[in-house]
Amino acid sequence: MATGSPIADLSYRNVSDAPLRKGRTWWIIAKNHIQRMLKVRSFWILTVLSGGYYLIMMAVTYFMDSLLGGAGNEQMAAGFFKQIVWKDQFLNGFQFGHFLLMAILLLVGAGSIANDNSSKALLVYFSKPCSKWDYLIGKFIGIFLMILLAILIPALFFMFYGGMNFREHGFLSDDPWMIPKVLAGFVLVAAYQASVILGVSSLFNQGRLAGATYAGVYVLTGVFSGMAKMVGEANNVADGVQKMLDKIHYLSLYGGAEGILKTVLQTDGSVFIRERGNSTDLLVPRPEIWLVLLVALVPAVICWFIAYKKVRAVEVVS
Amino acid sequence: MAVVTLESLTVAYGRFVALKDFSVEIPEGCVGLLGPNGAGKTTMLKTMLGFIKPAGGRGDVLGLEIGRDGNAIRQVVGYMPEQDCHIPGMNAVQFVAYAGELAGLARNHALQRAHEVLEYTGLGEARYRAVETYSTGMKQRIKLAQALVHGPKLLLLDEPTNGLDPRGRQEMLTLVRDISANKGVNVLVCSHLLPDIERTCDSVVVISQGQMKLQGGIQELRGLSSKAIDVELRETSGHFLQAVVAKGFELVSAKGNWYRLHATDGGDDLTQRVFAAARETGVQVRGLKPGARSLEEAFMEAIDGNR
Fold this sequence. Notes:
A: mainly alpha
């Protein structure tokens, strides 16, 4: 071969008996997505910021426990801890950080399929022994695990802190199933959000457009459902109307996630700085199962259907 | 042995029929798939890979049935698409290793193979750069590398010299030739550029309007035509041309004193008729040989249906 030939290594040989991997194709895709996202600095910054509520709670409970308790005000400290519904703190933590969690979702999910569409990467995926389900499940698992990680990391810190310090104040004994419920709730929330962003991402050729669309729907449906709550509070409406407004509260992307979490935790929520019985006017009761299915499962299934229909190796015009 | 067999394959996009009752046997070696734009070449490749479901007919690739054994086919086939395609946010090594893993290679082996094929395709140290920063030529090479990484037995190249400058084109063709001739990989090159096919392939399949028009070895297709004859005169002569036309020839081309004549009838006394015309018009014939077609002529004949 002449000097300067593109064939730099003539010892190259094609292989026919290469050792094969053991993992499934969808896991290769998910693993690749996760590995790349874990290197994104903003993911970690947003994750830490989204756990702000837990940090505040840890600081406040530390203060009340060590300073008041140590200064001879044990009764005052005990009274304070008695007001706290521990499992609700995880709901509060999620509510506090939901906008940042949405930003994380956009970061890890908006471009997952849209960017592949723009760079025609689907041709690479589907020219390999990779089915459409392998691709979609791989992308879903990649997004799901990342968003779950972002929700769980701060919560696990709080869980560990509470378990180590506040067992005598009912951290584990108030609800023995609290930890499994919290974990199950977060898993379902992450699965719901990952499903929706997967479908939205498949509709676009640019991650930014997919992200902007998801954020727009998230905010607009949030404003709509938030207004329903405000109307009810401002007008002191009849019980029947209030119940309907409470249902409307969950008709949003955020509402779906909140509904799942409240249902799994079996709580209406609480605000820890108030007496347990007096905080209900600020809270929306947890939704019925059918409403959770309507606002969470139905959109998730629709988004999966959209993604399945939109993802294909070549654009076929019928 | 045929590496690809298609029988009465019909592929339609709605009402538009891209491949119509298409049958072909692709032999081993390097085969060119020739045809004008929109002939159905890419559709054929995509159908073989299972991207498009045929409306009728059947086919197999390396003994595996299209439609039923999609994953198994893609395990042993490498595909270099016509369009630029890459996975965003990766450098070439990561991209090709990932492609290898998708194709079923173990992670460590995929990484090793990625380095090997990128070195082979001439990307050298540029393989550590983000793919988004690559030139067109480099993108073509990385597409070839991802198609080769898992050691395919059949390589499908869709317009491999698309967008390349003359030097890049030469280098790509050298690579393609080396892969098929020295590395034991069957190659199907899809192109509308005749010189590319002529330089790299052993045989060609010509497609037009979704139907196979011609198939054969390059030498065979370029071979002698029983109806064509090349005549060299001492000097150009219009009278001679009128005389040969009267004797059942048509003028195909004229280059200086050389004329390519094509017999329009079925007679086999071409030489005698040429000499008769020369005698009548008093011109001196200096050279005479059976006409050999260029691949372009064979292609045009096939496309026009004159063959």
